[in-house]
Amino acid sequence: MREALFIKQNSARWRAYEADKSRLDPDQLAESFISITDDLAYAKTFYPRSNTTKYLNGLASGFHQSIYRNKKEKSNRFILFWRYELPLIFFKHRRLLLYSFAFFLVSTLMGVLSAKYDGHFVNLILGDGYVNMTNDNIAKGDPFGVYKKMGEFEMFLMIGLNNIWVELKLVVSGIFLSVGSLYMLVYNGIMLGSFQYYFFSKGLGLQSVLVIWIHGTLEISTIIISGAAGLILGNSLLFPKTYSRLVSLKAGGKDAIKIALGILPIIVTAAFFEGYVTRHTEMPIWLSVTILVLSFIFILWYVVIYPAVLNKQFTQATPYIDDTEV
């Protein structure tokens, strides 16, 4: 990007930062500092001896000093990350989150239809061993006995590691121009659709929702979010805009990694539910529904609603011109 264009696209934001610095609270100072240091890193790379780089270096130093004076409030960097930084990344890439959800939803419907019109499709996707085991459990009157075969901690650990591995593949495979992540979204969606249809075909549809989606609400949400992170990575190569592909890839990779790390607590929580809670298939319906609804509300709030509200508040306080969305 030409230096003149770089200045034109960002100068209003820099002036706003400089003018409002004394009025910002510690959290806003930190957010502004992160943005300024990103600009400074870019300027040092492409305009190392320019006045723009000197100006940004001075601006960043001023913000650093302001944050240092408030270091007690800013001591917990992790809280800042989950409270502000990750939600703002979700908002920045909201369209790719929507695309990931759409691909997954369509793939799930494909799985449902395939299972409905092809009697062998469920066996092909889920495996004969799993289908035969579940049929045996249904005959015994315990259709979800698979969740009771292991001890709580053993299942929690195994499921947690597996889900982290799935997340890693969804994100990293995006480097193949997003095709890898799309493939995995389609595969997981088809698997979910055929899996869910199998229980409905056995007359266990509602019961399966009340049992499986205790952990499934969070687990499926992380698959969709991980898929979006993979699309961010791939699209940074496909659509670099005014940046070089290397710079665009670094920016996209940074956001993808932050998302992957940021949703780890959700993955661990889903694994905890599957290991310790889902096995209690006899729990009251109201309790199961409560867990399902609260999980859904949390995901909707943290990934969609809160990022939009936060972005509106942050934009009003310090206008941000985003030209790096990929």
How do the helices and strands line up, and which of them pair or pack?
Layout: H1 3-20, H2 26-46, H3 51-69, H4 77-92, H5 94-117, H6 121-126, H7 128-139, H8 152-172, H9 179-201, H10 205-238, H11 245-262, H12 264-277, H13 285-317
Helix pairs in contact: 2-3, 4-11, 4-13, 5-9, 5-10, 8-9, 8-10, 8-12, 9-10, 10-11, 10-12, 10-13
What does this protein look like?
The structure is a single chain. The chain is an all-alpha fold and 326 residues long. The protein has two domains: 3-75; 87-311, no CATH class. Helices cover 79% and strands 0% of the residues. It is built from 13 helices and no strands. Helix 2 packs antiparallel against helix 3 (51-69), helix 5 (94-117) packs across helix 9 and helix 9 packs antiparallel against helix 10. The model is unreliable at 70-75 and 318-326 (pLDDT under 50). It comes from Mucilaginibacter gynuensis. Keywords: Membrane, Transmembrane, Transmembrane helix.
Summary?
The protein is 79% helix and 0% strand. By secondary structure, the chain is mainly α.
Could you name the key traits of this structure?
single chain; mainly alpha; 79% helix; SpoIIM-like; membrane; transmembrane
